[in-house]
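Mods, move this if it's the wrong board.
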Amino acid sequence: MPTIKTLAGETFEPDLPRRLLSIAGEIREAGGRAFLVGGWVRDALLGRTCRDYDVEVYDLTQDELVPILKKYGRTNLVGKAFGVIHLAMKGLSLDFSFPRTESKVGYGHRGFVVHTDEKLSFKEAALRRDFTINAMGMELPELTLCDPYGGIDDLKKGLLRHVGPAFVEDSLRILRGVQFASRFALRLAPETIELCQTLSLEDLSIERLFEEFKKWLLKPGKPSLGLRAFLDIKLNEFFPEVSPLRGSWEDLGEMLDNMESLRRNFANAEAAGGAVGDAKCAPLSDDQVMEFAFASFLSGSPETSLKFLERITNESHLVKNVPLLLNAYSELDFAIVNDAPALRRMAVKLGGLKLLSLLVKATPRKYYAAAGAPEFPEQLWQAAASLDLLNAAPQPFLMGKMLMEMGFKPGKQMGETIKQSFELQLDGKIQNAEDAIAWARSRT
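Not the wrong board. Structure tokens:
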């Protein structure tokens, strides 16, 4: 199995399917060349495993390539306009494409004319890519690096630099720069910042916008570096609904990094089958992970969070829950840790206190220290845990079926009785179902 040397100088044996190496060997015997391209190369140089294999084939026509691929599985020309052949095999699927150039002829991300040409050089074909770190290739089967635009040097320098003038033809690349800065600890090159500032995101659908924000906020990395890129490009002017945390972008960046650390701790605890801290706490669902991430990003923007979310997503749980969470966060009083009824009512409002407690934990500690309450984040978590409010809201002890068995008839009186009983339960005056039933009987 071929190996490569990572940027750290270590020998790395990437995860490569033997069938892919065999196909590459046959392509070479037929007079062609096969390159792994894009993110696979970047990740391999960073010593990261990637199973997203994009193969670009040179010096062979489609008619010459298809018979080779058919020996290994079922082929499907999934992107005729883009020259993409999908190969499906048992336990593995691969995409093979031909070198191409793209010309912008219309509005939006579909407004391109694509020209495939198997005789293009790797350098010519790579010119259409976004950043130099994604414009590298490794020729199979030896994994010989082809780096016409200095991507490896940019990775070493921690620099995110556009390849060429074609960058401006897809404005989504602005947000790709933000999420790459976060995921790979990079800063934007000055010339790339300048170019990005000339572009607008107006032509992008909310689906495309949302995908890039998700990659920035949800994929492992250092999201504060994405925020720095976001501000360098002046995307805060395009998204004026996003505000700094208490006037500080730096503090918002710290909030985002704390969020990422807490989320990672949760994932590690879940993998180990343990609890989070001293409390039993259910793992975060996918929706909760997303809500926590976007609430952290919008922690300085409780009043405008809904407007921002409506601009970038149709995810109803985000649009509903994030503004609700942020309103509770912005109005939180330190005294709530000693107020069980208030905690219970807050849990009812939010469906549990886990995300609110995590948002407080993610907040820069200096805020609570300056207010004389340095232990507040941990106190809130422990108070919620002790009342069993982290994972869910309290449920009424008194149910309609119980009341009917006592002779109550369905209607307004039954509803009012359940409501009053639940209020007493939230106040701690009714401790269990037996207490609720006794209280209801005392009213008959």
